[in-house]
Write a structure and sequence with these properties.
Elements: H1 11-74, H2 76-85, E1 90-99, E2 102-111, H3 127-220
Antiparallel strand pairs: 1-2
């Protein structure tokens, strides 16, 4: 059956549409189950994201204070020069896991070899810079974890929206069109059967009259 045109009123077409209806209902059930799982996973991710955000709020306040004190004591130029000359001692590995067939990036902060010590000189810095650097280093895994949860929520929500659109299409477009087509075919076939019954009945009346007439002529002879 092609959507947008009247179905062919035949028994074969009716069988095809019934099978398509069964498949549509099966797909609807699968999508509905998927929607429930997505909603559950999103709730779990929101809870984890809230915990991750709570874990980084307090360190962020300490970091802002330490960075502010560094700027005030050393000046913008000196602090930015230290930052530009400091090599990166940490890197982030990005892997992918699947949740309800949705690809979710996972982030893992790794410290490079030799990264257990601060990688800048101490002659032009002070304790505020050391404190800020250590706090940032310790907080990076938590920031990445929070970002991972936030991205997971976004990805799962996008998949939930797509799944809901498919469910709506099945509920309000595809399945109703199959139902209308089946009703049309059944009604048309029943009407044809009634017309055929009436036609056969009329033929039988004509044949009975002809037979009676032939019998009368035979008796007259």
């Amino acid at each position: 059956m092609s959507f947008g045109r009247r179905a062919t009123a035949t028994k074969i077409e009716l069988i095809k549409i019934r099978r398509s209806m069964q498949v549509a209902k099966m797909v609807h059930k699968i999508l509905d189950d998927k929607r429930e799982v997505l909603l559950k996973k999103i709730d779990e991710m929101i809870e984890e994201a809230n915990k991750a955000r709570e874990d980084i709020w307090s360190p962020l306040g300490d970091i802002y204070t330490a960075v502010y004190n560094s700027y005030m004591s050393l000046g913008t130029s000196t602090l930015e020069a230290v930052a530009d000359s400091t090599p990166s001692i940490m890197e982030v590995d990005v892997n992918v896991r699947r949740i309800v067939d949705v690809k979710i990036p996972t982030l893992q902060v790794k410290t490079r070899e030799g990264g257990s010590h601060l990688s800048y000189g101490f002659t032009e810095t002070n304790a505020s810079v050391d404190k800020a650097a250590k706090l940032i280093k310790n907080m990076l895994p938590g920031v990445c974890k929070a970002a991972e949860y936030e991205n997971a929520i976004f990805s799962l929500a996008k998949e939930l929206e797509r799944t809901q659109k498919l469910i709506n299409a099945l509920e309000f477009v595809i399945i109703p069109q199959y139902q209308d087509a089946m009703y049309f075919i059944k009604a048309t076939l029943e009407e044809r059967e009634r017309e055929e019954f009436v036609r056969l009945k009329k033929v039988k009346v004509v044949l009975d009259k002809r037979k009676a007439s032939e019998q009368e002529r035979a008796m007259a002879k």
